[in-house]
């Protein structure tokens, strides 16, 4: 039932996020039978971050757009990742701050046991701060859910 | 006033955390005039995670143990990192879960402007889950503060 | 000082909410000397849910509109009920979700002791999810306050 | 993709909870091909509430004890239900309060589309208050998750 | 329905807290027909802060010990005041920090309208920080509730 | 390393806030080598409260506008003060409430040890409630940070 060391999906989702060479990274992940994507979003509104990730995940075939259980799994993974970025209140512009984020979404089975089925990892990395250039520091978040 | 691309302290703190070759990584960071450390802690009690990181940061000379402003900066960075790991309530055993974490602490100036002085980044990576072997998934957190 | 088994105001507020036959239910509650109402609200904005319940409670004579202590009691009961519906952050559209809710408000004394005076219960039941038909699941909330 | 009106799993989980005649109710739910259980737990420690529900769900065959994805689904449903009961901080004794709860767990597909698969609903109802007999009011919570 | 400028109960509760001459202050408040008390509590456990304030309020006749509605009003006022002190998670030792607090409780009607009846204000002031002498800064909190 | 009794910056920030004679108070604080300011803001949007305090602090030379570390220290102090005012969710209009606040910002060293350097205290006092005149009660908040 343990996590497989080579298949730590959260670690891969974060490395993919921080990699300057994502295409190769995604290719290697495909060899684990995993599927993933990477994108960018900047906003003062958390709902735009959510929507950008959902759209990318659907467009890249990571979740089935007409199965709610898959959107539900993704939504909660996104919300968990946003907790890491926002650290207390999942709010951006309403508390006078903005984000510039790179995101990655990965889908696959990180466990030894094949019956654990697919899981989804959403990783976020970027800057958060005042809506003033340079008045920002880095933030990261990861959400992991069964799908 | 912008973040220096080579000096993104949060990114370095996360890569150091995920690296299998931390000594070389820490050596390279020293060349940026940065100081850092890496350690491990597993617990069902959040306060033990806090204490382990504080102890490591003091023992490795990352913060001055007798200046409260430095402990205060570190404490809030740890708490922010814990938000990423716990995603909602900074609680472990009291909500029936446990963590096994690797942590890294880095201190240095990530900005172009030398007057921005030192900042501190605390990164956490590991597993969170039920107090049952294998019933766990990954989690990550990052806290960044001026010091 | 104990709760009277027949007068569990929260239980009644939830059963009223889920009942297909609310008029009879409200009639029976009137025989306990209680007053209540039931309504519906759908929105992506939490403040509209709050306002809809406040308006219904005033229009139905459940609280006195010109006594702040009564509005205050109701407001906190509504906020507590919203915690059950939102489960973490009292936010809807700002985290890309919407609700379709039925609400009930009940006022009366649920305790054996007449001196406990009036209490207010606000119950919420409905769906929460993405702003896409069918991409939603159920949610419930209950707030109870002295008035 | 819509919720099936007869199969609203959260509503059934709450009615089962509030019913004085649970055996008949569970029997009727079995005819929907659903599986469920009901139990009681009183504690000043949230982790004991979590453990009691997990144990009951495993003992009654509602989740497979050796599949983490099922425990994970249940855990998050329990945590969501606890938000409704605690309304702000998922804490009991640490903020000087205690609960006496009845819980129900239901598993089945509430959607029209068979591909939505199984979902799990955890409902909680009871009292919360000071650790003094009678100094308590009612609380309710519901968590719904795909499994 | 407005707040009476001379009767701002929260302001009085805070000034009483910060005053070096509380006896005179309490005497003047009695002339507004108000009743209050002041005390101290230091702890790493939030529930001990709650219990100390509840005990003082009962012993000083500020609330009626055998009416739950009064304890309920006080409890929520205490919890709200603790939010100001803890600023995010109502936790002390579990996140490796401790408090040394002075508290005040005041009861009276702060509004122009006599029908607004009694309200209760709980104010907290002191230090919060690491369980190390001097590694602490100040914190304040105020909770106001109808009673 | 202890707090200096005469230099309790949070206490001074609150007394300055509640004083009817702020000019004299600020003058006395200048003799401790401290710098401060006082202002007012009313809004249904938390980000306007944040912006008003940031603007006042910059205009009065309390923080250096072009050093991010100083804005960062101030931002977190403001957010902590807002926790005291909002007591649970840092939200105003989105949960149907509004504030009318006086704020003070003070900068100086509250510790015996000169090496502790400057700290910043943000205090907030005013009313919070429904967007209806008189339907409001008092609230207070204090945030303290190293700068
Ligand atoms: Mg999880
Ligand atoms: Mg920050
Ligand atoms: Mg209550
Ligand atoms: Mg959900
Ligand atoms: Mg209030
Ligand atoms: Mg602090």
From TrEMBL, chains A, B, C, D, E, F:
Q: Which SUPFAM superfamilies match?
A: Hut operon positive regulatory protein HutP
One biological process term in Gene Ontology: positive regulation of gene expression
The name on file for this protein is Hut operon positive regulatory protein
Name the species this protein comes from.
Answer: Alkalihalophilus marmarensis DSM 21297
> Which family is it part of?
Belongs to the HutP family.
Database matches in HAMAP family: HutP (MF_00779)
Q: Which InterPro entries match?
A: Regulatory_HutP (IPR015111), Regulatory_HutP_bacillales (IPR023552), Regulatory_HutP_sf (IPR036482)
Arranged from A to Z, the UniProt key words for this protein are:
Activator, Histidine metabolism, RNA-binding, Transcription, Transcription regulation
General function of this protein:
Antiterminator that binds to cis-acting regulatory sequences on the mRNA in the presence of histidine, thereby suppressing transcription termination and activating the hut operon for histidine utilization.
Query: Assembly state and interactors?
Result: Homohexamer.
Name of encoding gene: hutP
Is RNA-binding found in the keyword set?
yes
One Gene Ontology MF term: mRNA binding
């Amino acid at each position: 039932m343990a996590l497989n060391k080579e298949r730590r999906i959260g670690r891969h989702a974060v490395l993919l996020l921080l990699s300057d060479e994502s295409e190769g990274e995604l290719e290697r992940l495909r060899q684990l039978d995993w599927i993933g994507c990477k994108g960018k979003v900047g906003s003062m509104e958390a709902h735009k971050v959510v929507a950008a990730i959902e759209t990318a995940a659907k467009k890249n075939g990571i979740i089935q757009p007409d199965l709610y259980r898959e959107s539900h799994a993704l939504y909660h993974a996104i919300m968990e990742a946003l907790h890491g970025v926002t650290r207390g209140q999942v709010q951006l512009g309403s508390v006078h701050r903005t984000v510039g984020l790179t995101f990655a979404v990965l889908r696959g089975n990180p466990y030894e046991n094949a019956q654990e089925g697919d899981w989804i990892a959403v990783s976020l990395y970027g800057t958060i701060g005042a809506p003033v250039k340079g008045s920002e520091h880095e933030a990261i978040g990861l959400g992991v859910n069964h799908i």
